[in-house]
Write a structure and sequence with these properties.
Blueprint: H1 15-20, H2 23-26, H3 28-35, E1 40-42, E2 48-49, E3 58-60
Antiparallel strand pairs: 1-2, 1-3
């Protein structure tokens, strides 16, 4: 199987990528930990996360 090329470093930990994989369905408790008490929003997709490391273009809320 071919390895998927990521658009930028760390993208495999970003909510937009995880959401496309269905992570929120297959691992709901882990997903909740990523978004609980969200402090940052992605300027691209609008998702909110507790840590900016889980977003492509984070801005503080």
């Amino acid at each position: 199987m071919a390895k998927t090329e990521m658009p930028h470093l760390g993208h495999d930990k970003h909510l937009c990528y995880l959401n496309n994989l269905g992570f929120q369905i297959s691992n709901p408790e882990e997903y909740k930990e990523l978004v609980r008490d969200g402090k940052h929003m992605c300027k691209i997709c609008g998702r909110v996360a507790a840590s900016e490391k889980n977003l492509c273009k984070p801005v503080d809320l």
